[in-house]
Amino acid sequence: MARQPKPLVRSDIAYSTPDRIVVRGKSLPDEVLGHMNLGDFAYLQLTGKAATPQQSAMFNAIVITLVEHGMTPSAIAARMTYAGAPESLQAAVAAGLCGLGSVFVGSMEGACRMLSEALPYDTRGSRCDDLEELAVDTVAEWRARGTPIPGLGHPLHKPIDPRTPRLFELAAQNGLSGDYVRLMQLIGAEAERVSGKPLPINATGAIGAICCEFGFPWRIVRGFGVMARAIGLVGHLLEEGERPMSFELWQRVEDEASAHLRGEA
Amino acid sequence: MARQPKPLVRSDIAYSTPDRIVVRGKSLPDEVLGHMNLGDFAYLQLTGKAATPQQSAMFNAIVITLVEHGMTPSAIAARMTYAGAPESLQAAVAAGLCGLGSVFVGSMEGACRMLSEALPYDTRGSRCDDLEELAVDTVAEWRARGTPIPGLGHPLHKPIDPRTPRLFELAAQNGLSGDYVRLMQLIGAEAERVSGKPLPINATGAIGAICCEFGFPWRIVRGFGVMARAIGLVGHLLEEGERPMSFELWQRVEDEASAHLRGEA
Amino acid sequence: MARQPKPLVRSDIAYSTPDRIVVRGKSLPDEVLGHMNLGDFAYLQLTGKAATPQQSAMFNAIVITLVEHGMTPSAIAARMTYAGAPESLQAAVAAGLCGLGSVFVGSMEGACRMLSEALPYDTRGSRCDDLEELAVDTVAEWRARGTPIPGLGHPLHKPIDPRTPRLFELAAQNGLSGDYVRLMQLIGAEAERVSGKPLPINATGAIGAICCEFGFPWRIVRGFGVMARAIGLVGHLLEEGERPMSFELWQRVEDEASAHLRGEA
Amino acid sequence: MARQPKPLVRSDIAYSTPDRIVVRGKSLPDEVLGHMNLGDFAYLQLTGKAATPQQSAMFNAIVITLVEHGMTPSAIAARMTYAGAPESLQAAVAAGLCGLGSVFVGSMEGACRMLSEALPYDTRGSRCDDLEELAVDTVAEWRARGTPIPGLGHPLHKPIDPRTPRLFELAAQNGLSGDYVRLMQLIGAEAERVSGKPLPINATGAIGAICCEFGFPWRIVRGFGVMARAIGLVGHLLEEGERPMSFELWQRVEDEASAHLRGEA
Predict the structure, then answer these.
(1) What is the ipTM metric for this complex?
(2) Regarding beta strands D20-23 and D26-27, do their DSSP bridges make them parallel or antiparallel, or are they unpaired?
(3) Is D7 near chain C, with CB under 8 Å?
(4) Does B99 sit within 8 Å of C85, measured CB to CB?
(5) In this structure, are residues B212 and B112 in contact, taking their beta carbons and an 8 Å threshold?
(6) Are B186 and B233 in contact (CB under 8 A)?
(7) Recorded E.C. number(s) (chains A, B, C, D) (predicted)?
(8) CB distance from A82 to chain D under 8 Å?
(9) CB-CB under 8 Å, C85 with B100
(10) H/E element holding C27?
(11) Mutate to test the interface with C, among A9, A19, A21 (most CBs of C within 10 A)
């Protein structure tokens, strides 16, 4: 049962020698440190390409938007985990990340996927006359499936999500507002028309559309949310270390959840 | 057993209203997006303060240094996890983060702790004459304990770690090269003297010292590594999705590990 | 914006008072400890019901089958994580569990789902004449979708999976071999007929069918795999602590993966 | 930089051939399935040995005691994670496990360590006259360090922890009540004497002592807690799927935590 190792274990990301450290073809000490900000280096690490100044401005804004969303289930999970294992901050961040799935990062990923499937990257430009028709068809399809259209509506931010106009403004300033931003806006308008309800584009819809302007594959988009939230969660854990809320929450939940079993409710 | 909720559930990081999103006192759409890069926003999220241009340059360089370290156990764990659950990229990143503990981020945290305990932040400036004595005492203490001094030596990068001179150069350019960088250098020289072995300051030693120049509590330092590596791991998973190595590794390990049980070795 | 807490925080699993600990209605010290084995208690915790002796025998066998599957990607991920954070065994187990997703536990869940959707629990008994027709229809459906039928075939265990006949034997001995086991067997036979390839029922197919005999909702089945593998992973980590393989694997992968970048390959 | 692979990748746990699956030297289909319960198989997987009937009874009881502890921070973290990624039950279990660190499983591990360091396994039997003196010394040592003695006292279960007498009763019935159980009891009595406070042995103290009777290394003990809690967490997640509490908790925490920032408190 001897097997010859196949040449399948290969990575193009980085390498080191005694005197060099090279990431995506750039010398870390000489060409990266002091020359790039963290967002630009993330862009390089993920795409293998250096961001232009316009891409840098937009990409930094997108990732920043995803860092901190308040006392989310993810932040609560991380804080609860830290309460039990304060010696393992990394595991508390990991616990918080585990919940960034279909419910929370799903709509951003979904908007990017919806738009890039409606207007495949290799056909862009050739179909811009049809954007209104595409929007009508897309809304009809989603309504037929009975699934909410990703990237529209927000439970708190009404009538508009304050991040959306700012993200679209930055997109326009940086040459990243084309067919996909337009298509997202047309889909929003059409969805409002047929549903009769206000359905403003939320931050995840705006980000999904701008990610299409970059030409990112939709699968990468969840990764932006995950890496951004890791930063946010570290902030929550540092605060939890100084002013903990976990034990109080634990006691409240424990008391309330089993009161009926203890014959108290 | 009725309990009155105590006012213990409180966070100062962020809040939202229908038309506002405010993080660390700054309006996300108006004062952050388009005005800050990701590293600066991370600094704000974690410390509650806006970075000066000098702090920004140095902090971005520190975190970037921690993003990508090649095919580490952490990257392998993330890739293996992704092979089993490609629908949960977030869980694969989480798996990779779980291993950033005492062995890998320990030395950075350890260097920061060693230096800030040798020269507490509230006494800095007052003791700079004693730095050489402090270095001698510190090395003697660690040797007495029989524990390697954190931040010194590297298995691959010899005779020097190429990141260290660049990080110290940036520190000097940005006004962040003071007693702690000096103390780290004196500790390195003293350790070489008493051990008779080359023990250059490695990247984690340099970062630990510069974190002391910032005045960061040592516990925060692990968080820098965790958030940085989350970015790096997303890069590895995107590559794994396109050119997987997990199944090949799995087969090799499975075959080799149990060959003696199958009577083949 | 004051909100009245709704009575939504409630759990029926367990409660404690100063002198009592009750799980699923049973006193832990008096009715559980010394009276149940771990598999039976797991059955109680998950279903809220005490297992009959027959259910106990079968359920213990199912979960045991899922504990240890060799040097899987999940075991490798756990060992790699432990190498970096040996002080956090729990995080290493967590890392290993994160990969138990669509690829590895998917087929067990899929078999249970396929069978319980073909023959819904509330119609069982009434349709047993149709089992052959159901099998033909089910195979046709899956082939039309172009997706492999869950629970059939195995890359190593040929011509049969040695666990399958034993699991079906135990099912028969314990009164848990009815329409679902029969349907799974008919589906296997039909799939072999139309594909012309040997497609024996594998362990996950057998377990999926027996879970249907229990009447378990298909979503619970992944949970059996997750809790079983947690036991297996603890075993791997104890071995890793005594005879580590992580560092060797790390070095090999690091060397091989970037050889082409270093100009060595 | 070519490296010869060293024979370091080796595991003694399990192997498979086309017609065999062998775990710890036993044929899974023939010698395990239908012959062992889950607790016994866990004992085999972890220790490499088959449990005697007495060891089986005691080991099953120990692990069962650790499965379900109510609405703990770990259970809350798992439920919160499931709310965001219901498609990844495994990641929600993983998130819950990540918090089983120094605070929650620490005391069980600590009791086992304290006792086995006071009375090393290779000296047992020879020192049983000294148990009282050992207890006095041990309590004095811990008090000198200012650290609470592991395994004593409980915030809710007063004046005794109802699990402790039952666990000790089972230990006595199964020939596992020797020097270590006696030493734990003497330490409890001495601690009460010198502190003047009631300090009953809690469940983790009882389990720690009984683990010493087995001769388990103290590092294994955390593993028992982790694998047990994985079972408990699956139970919580199944309940969360049917009757969710996460969104309600999220809203409450979000509202309360930032009320002062929104100017409401």
Answers:
(1) 0.95
(2) antiparallel
(3) no
(4) yes
(5) yes
(6) no
(7) 2.3.3.16
(8) yes
(9) yes
(10) strand C26-27
(11) A9
Contact D49, D43 (CB under 8 A): yes
State both tokens at C250: 């790390």
CB spacing of A91 vs B68 below 8 angstroms: no
| Residue A235, SS3 per DSSP | helix
Nearest chain C CA: its distance from B4 CA (Å): 14
> Which residue in the set D18, D45, D219 is minimally distant from C68, CB to CB?
D45
The answer to whether residue D98 neighbours chain B at the CB level (below 8 Å) is yes
Determine, for residues D94 and C89 on separate chains, whether the beta-carbon distance falls below 8 Å. no
Tell me the pLDDT of chain D (265 aa) as tens digits.
455 555 589 999 999 999 999 999 999 999 999 999 999 999 999 999 999 999 999 999 999 999 999 999 999 999 999 999 999 999 999 999 999 999 988 888 999 999 999 999 988 766 667 899 999 999 999 999 999 999 999 989 989 999 999 999 999 999 999 999 999 999 999 999 999 999 999 999 999 999 999 999 999 899 999 999 999 999 999 999 999 999 999 999 999 999 999 987 5
The residues pairing with D158 across neighbouring beta strands, listed in sequence order, are: none
CATH code matching the domain that covers D106-219, chosen among 3.40.50.790, 3.30.70.270, 2.40.37.10, 1.10.230.10 = 1.10.230.10
Is domain A53-244 given the CATH code 1.10.230.10 in the classification?
Answer: yes
Domains in chain C: boundaries: 12-51, 53-243
Chain C segment 198-237 residues within 8 A of D by beta carbon are 219-220, 222-227, 230-232, 234-237
**Interchain proximity B99–C87, CB inside 8 Å:** no
Q: Which amino acid is at D52?
A: T
The residues, ordered by sequence, that sit 6+ positions from B246 with a Cβ below 8 Å of its Cβ are: B79, B80, B82, B83, B240, C73
Contact status, residue D112 vs residue D210, Cβ threshold 8 Å = no
Q: Looking at the complex, report in whole angstroms how far the Cα of residue C2 sits from the nearest Cα belonging to chain D.
A: 8
Residue D46 and residue C230: Cβ atoms within 8 Å? no
Contact state of B85 with D91 under an 8 Å Cβ cutoff: yes
Q: Touching check for B61 and chain C: CB below 8 Å?
A: no
| C19 interfaces chain D, CB cutoff of 8 Å | yes
Tell me how far apart the alpha carbons of residues D157 and D161 are, in angstroms, rounded to a whole number. Answer: 5
Are B87 and D88 a contacting pair at CB < 8 A?
yes
| C-alpha span between A174 and A37 (Å, rounded) | 18
Task: Name the residue among C156, D80, D157, D240 with its Cα closest to residue A73.
Answer: D80
CATH code for the part of the protein at B65-265 = 1.10.230.10
CATH architecture of C53-243: Orthogonal Bundle (1.10)
Task: Give the whole-angstrom CA distance, residue A61 versus residue C154.
Answer: 48
Give contacts of A11 with chain C, Cβ < 8 Å. Answer: 257-258
Task: Name, in order, each residue with C-beta under 8 angstroms of D220's C-beta and a sequence gap of 6 or more.
Answer: C238, D46, D211
Closest in A14, A234, A241 to B226, CB measured: A234
Residue D220 is nearest to which of C69, C94, C238, comparing CB atoms? C238
Closest CB from B6, B33, B64 relative to A61: B33
